[in-house]
Design goal:
This protein is mostly helical. The chain is built from 8 helices and no strands.
């Protein structure tokens, strides 16, 4: 996990030094990809979402005010981009086939996790991915998703119940 102050400092330096964008990209691209993928469920779309996130960051950095929440700020941009792309994807209704050959030995377990995540709605999936895969607290998730912390906790509980029911059957 990346230190919030480091991200804040890089975001502030981005105003004068565009090399900071590359540093931010290398520190957070995998996290943001994982988050975008949890929403979009498509590798290419998640890569596009991360690219668009950094493009928007570059254009909006002059409006950023440091509050020790640089990482949450980037997740918020990625969330908005991913949800926009998700809405567009739903309008177009494309179908995506599973890969024909496993990419790694733990492919089956990743498919099990993906299957569980697909049973959740977007809001529940975001909470689970941010909490368990990105080690965010409920308070941080509330900031990223612009949702009250109580709602985040409720979505977490609801998502876990869905996962337990699915695992039993």
């Amino acid at each position: 996990m990346t230190d919030e102050r480091t991200i804040d400092q890089l975001l502030l330096s981005l105003k004068e030094n565009t090399d900071a964008l590359e540093h931010i990209y290398h520190r957070l691209r995998r996290e943001l990809f994982s988050y975008a993928y949890s929403i979009l469920q498509d590798t290419d779309a998640a890569n596009d979402a991360v690219s668009e996130t950094f493009l928007r960051l570059y254009h909006a950095v002059s409006r950023y005010r440091p509050k020790g929440q640089g990482r949450a700020y980037l997740y918020g941009i990625c969330r908005r981009v991913s949800l926009e792309m998700c809405r567009e994807k739903q309008r177009q209704q494309p179908t995506e086939a599973l890969p024909e050959t496993p990419a790694s030995p733990d492919f089956d377990s990743r498919l099990d996790v993906q299957a569980l995540l697909k049973r959740l709605d977007i809001e529940e999936r975001q909470v689970i991915v941010l909490h368990y895969f990105h080690d965010m607290t409920f308070k941080e998730i509330a900031r990223v998703t612009d949702t009250p912390e109580g709602t985040v906790k409720w979505r977490h509980t609801k998502a876990l119940e869905k996962c337990r029911v699915t695992a039993v059957h």
